[in-house]
DNA sequence: GCGGCTCACATTGTCAACAATCGACTGTCT
DNA sequence: AGACAGTCGATTGTTGACAATGTGAGCCGC
C-alpha cells in the first residue's frame, strides 16, 4: 500500500496540470492581496465575505487561510476572528538578523559552484532591479529585489533553505509593502546592490560576509526609524 | 475596523482556554503518531479512515492535515492521496547543514546574555539526556536531545529562529524515529554532548563553532550510512 | 501476447446547513 | 452612578451529503 508511486516518473513529470484546485488559487490570491497591501495589516478577514468574494464555499477558503496562517501572514483566534499580522519593530529586526545568517549560509553552499550561468543570472537580476529603481517604480523594485536575493537561494538547490527563505520572504514583503504605502519611494539603493553583486562575484568571501552584514544593517536601520514612529500596535503573530 | 483588540492585554493573557478546537487536537495527535513512528514514512493517510479514527468529520481533519503538510511532514497530490513524507539522503544532509548554521546563529544571539539560569538549564538538560543514554532508553533520549537543543533556541527569544527550528525539528524527529525503528540504539553519544555543553558554557566562541560543526558532521555521517543502505525511495516533500 | 480503451471504484474536492462560542449591548439591581 | 447578569448578533467551528478526479482492473482488437 505504501508503494503507490512506482515507475511513473515520466508520467508524473509530464502533463501535470491537475485541474487547479480552488484552495491553491485562493491562497495565491489572498497572499497577493495581503502582500500588495490591498488588505492592511491588522484588518480582520471574515470567512463568509471572502468566500463570496472568491466565489467559493467556506471550506476551501478556510484551508487556504490555514496555509497563510502557517506562513505567518495571518493570525487566528478561535471563534473570534482572523487578522492580517502586523509586524513590530522586533519582528522586523528578527527578519533582518535571520537574513544575514541565511544569506551567508547560502553563499557558503554555492561559493565553489558559481558558474557562468549563476554569474549571468545574478547580473541580470541586478540590472532589472537597477532599472526599476531608476524608473522610481517602487512596487516593481520590491519584486525585483526579492528576485535578486531569491535567485541566490534558488541557486543553492538547498530545498530546506529555500523553504525557509519562502517563509521569511512573505513577512519581509509584508513589511516592505507597508513601508511603501506609508513612505513612498524608499530611497536610493543602487550603490548598495551594486556592491552586493560585485562582492558576490569576487573571490573574497569575507568581504562578501561584511557586505551582507552591512547591507542588512542599513535596511534594518531604515526599518526601525519607520516603525518606531507609529504605535506599531502589532497583532502579534506566532 | 482594524482596532478590535485594544486594552484587553490582561484579559487575553489570563484565562485563555478557548474550549479546545478539534483541529488543534487532531494535528497534535497525528503529528505525534507520525513522529512516534506509529505511521511509517510513505504510508498513505486516507481522510475518511482517519476522520473515523479521531471521531470527527473530514473538515477539521483536512485542516489539520493541511497544517502538517505545511510543516513538511506530509505531502499531498490532488485527488490522489496524502502520504507521510520519506526523507532521502539529501534531505537529511540538508537538515544537518542547516542545523549547524542555525545553532551557531542561536549562540551568537545569546552569547553575551548567558546568565545563571541559562547555564543551569543547559546542564540540567544535558544530565537528563545522559541519564536516558545510560538507561539505553532510545525513545526518551530522542526527546531529551531535542529538548537540549530546543532550550538553546528558546533562550534566544528569537521568535523567527524558534519557528524555523520547529519546522526543522519535525523532520529531524521523523528521521530519528525511522533510524531508531531500523537500528535500535543509535550508539554512545555521551562524550559528544558533554563536549557540546562544555563549549557552550566556555568563553571561546570559535571553539564552540568547531564543536557544533563536528557534532553535526558526526550525526550526518551516521545518517548517510543508514539511509544509503536502503533504497530511500522518498515520497518527495516540498 | 500486447497496447489501447472503457468502466467502476476509491479518494479527494466542494458545498450548504447547523451548532458552539465570543463580544457587546441593555436593562436591572444595589 | 456603578456593577452585574442576561440576551442578541456576528463569526467561527463542525457536519454530512454531493461532485470531480485519478487509478487500476478487465476487456477488446491487433
Automatic annotation (TrEMBL), chains A, B:
The HTH gntR-type domain, residue ranges: 20-87
Keyword flag Transcription: yes
Organism field: Azospirillum melinis
DNA-binding as UniProt keyword: yes
Protein name stated in the entry: GntR family transcriptional regulator
InterPro entries, A to Z: GntR_C, TF_FadR/GntR_C, Tscrpt_reg_HTH_GntR, WH-like_DNA-bd_sf, WH_DNA-bd_sf
Highest taxon in the source lineage: Bacteria
Keywords noted in UniProt: DNA-binding, Transcription, Transcription regulation
PROSITE patterns assigned: HTH_GNTR
Gene3D superfamilies: GntR ligand-binding domain-like (1.20.120.530), Winged helix-like DNA-binding domain superfamily/Winged helix DNA-binding domain (1.10.10.10)
